[in-house]
Amino acid sequence: MMIERQRAIVSGQSVPRLPRHVRIQFDPVRQAHAVLSPEKVFWPNEASLDILKLCDGRRTVDEITEDLARDYDASPQEMAGDVAAFLQEWADKLLVRL
Amino acid sequence: MKKSWKKPAMCQVAR
């Protein structure tokens, strides 16, 4: 039996959030945050960790990009493509819900 | 001091 799933596409108005089975945990051994899902462990770089922390189910992708631009040396316009591509990739892997 | 923007990436590992 095939289960058809419609692919969610990221837009500036998407409101991403982490599903219940995905969480961010600080690993004291490595002094770094890990993203844990039931079958996989990921080590995010600083930018991706900051994006995931803002995926709270309330902010839109545009708002996340604006928030990030306050902390980084790039404008929202410069970051928007990277942020959207990152969220699309992880939404496709079911680690982010849109 | 603003952080340097690098393309977001996560590498998969495998408590």
From TrEMBL, chain A:
Monomer. Interacts with PqqE. Coiled coil: none annotated. It holds the Pfam family PqqD. This is Pyrroloquinoline quinone biosynthesis protein PqqD. Pathway: Cofactor biosynthesis; pyrroloquinoline quinone biosynthesis. One of its GO terms (biological process) is pyrroloquinoline quinone biosynthetic process. GO terms for molecular function: quinone binding. It comes from the Bacteria. Keywords: PQQ biosynthesis.
